Amino acid sequence: MSKSKIYLDGKWVAKEEAKISVFDHGVLYGDGVFEGIRAYDGVVFKLDEHMERLYRSARLISLTIPKSKDDMAAIVNEAIKINNLENAYIRLIVTRGIGDLGLDPRVCGTPSIVVIADQVALFPERCYKEGLEAVFVNTRRNVASALDPTIKSLNYLNNILAKIEANEKGVPEGIMLNTDGYVAECTGDNVFFVKGDTVVTPPVVAGVLEGITRAAVMDIIRTKTKYRIKEILFTPNEIFEADEVFFTGTAAEVIPVTRIDSRPIGKGTPGPVTLDLIGYFRELTKSGTHVRKR
Ligand code: PMP
Q1: 53 in ligand 1 pocket by Cβ < 6 Å?
Q2: % of the chain at pLDDT higher than 90
Q3: Is 69 an active-site residue?
Q4: Do the beta carbons of residue 256 and residue 271 sit within 8 Å?
Q5: Is the model's pLDDT at 1 over the cut of 50?
Q6: In terms of domains, do 30 and 73 share one?
Q7: Cα four-point dihedral sign 115, 39, 217, 69
Q8: Is the pLDDT of residue 292 over 70?
Q9: CB 142 near ligand 1, within 6 Å
Q10: Confidence at 122, pLDDT banded by 50, 70, 90
Q11: Among 65, 192, 206, 283, which one is most buried in terms of CB atoms within 10 A?
Q12: Residue 249 CB–ligand 1 contact under 6 Å
């Protein structure tokens, strides 16, 4: 039996006791919000940014989190300490709470708060050296007028359908287009490509989650490198003509992509810009300088 302690509505409980009601609207309807967070060497990476995104997501679904951002951040910090973890993946969930079988959120009681700190499940190191393979999937990214992709909600079926397509093709990630045919993002990562000295990523209006890693990498490009960063709409063909492609995400960090739809990208090996950015990103996570000065 695992000794890990899960935060559940004010208590630290054993994994086996961390249970939620079947009447919670998080279970019944995917009604809730969440964050996936990393800690490096005992320091939570970009904690303020994750808190801001969580509370923004909650606001946009009219969910009032019954805790201040500071209290929530303290629980996240406590989660790694209580579980004796230095390097960890932290999943923070806020559900709508317990209601009845109707979907009206007004019938729900207090939102449930869950914080799980666990080991990080990473792509094998080989993928960072050789590059990842991906495919373009048929499932289009949700349109913002139906379900805004900038809301990190518990409703991930759009991404799961895309993931199933990637699974069926035997590759670890699927790239989704938006309904206009422009590249949006992956099932759980943001997309970048490199052409010459320019690094390109879709703007938020393409239908992407504003990744915390995406923002950190854009900041690195602006402040530490001679490359240019552009947020513009682009099509799959521009990806096939790119010198390099990489994905970013909390779990993946910065990962090179060397084959898409069975076609090699650039030289078919991780390119110099991506490798540079992996180096800078690792420096940032190891240095402790990722903690924002208050
Ligand atoms: N896009 C989607 C759909 C995601 O779920 C995630 C995070 N899992 C990302 C992008 C990357 O965001 P972050 O860098 O904040 O992890």
Answers
A1: no
A2: 93
A3: no
A4: yes
A5: no
A6: yes
A7: positive
A8: no
A9: no
A10: confident
A11: 192
A12: yes
pLDDT in tens, 38-66: 999 999 999 999 999 999 999 999 999 99
Average pLDDT, the chain: 95
How would residue 29 be classed by pLDDT, with cut points 50, 70 and 90? very high
Q: Is the pLDDT of residue 290 over 70?
A: no
CATH code for the domain of 236: 3.20.10.10
Pairing of strands 88-95, 113-118: antiparallel
Taking the model in full, what pTM does it have? 0.96
Q: Is residue 293 in a domain?
A: no
- Give the C-alpha separation, 141 to 148, whole Å: 10
159 within ligand 1 shell (Cβ under 6 A): yes
* pLDDT of residue 264 exceeding 70: yes
Count up the domains in the chain and report the number.
2
Identify which of 191, 250, 255, 277 to mutate to test ligand 1's pocket (most ligand atoms within 8 A of the CB).
250
| 2, 148, 185 from 136: Cα distances, Å | 38, 21, 10
Token representation of residue 35: 């964050």
CATH number of the structural domain spanning residue 18: 3.30.470.10
Choose among 50, 115, 125, 55: nearest CA to 85.
Answer: 115
* 68 exposure class (CB count in 10 Å sphere: 0-12, 13-18, 19+): exposed
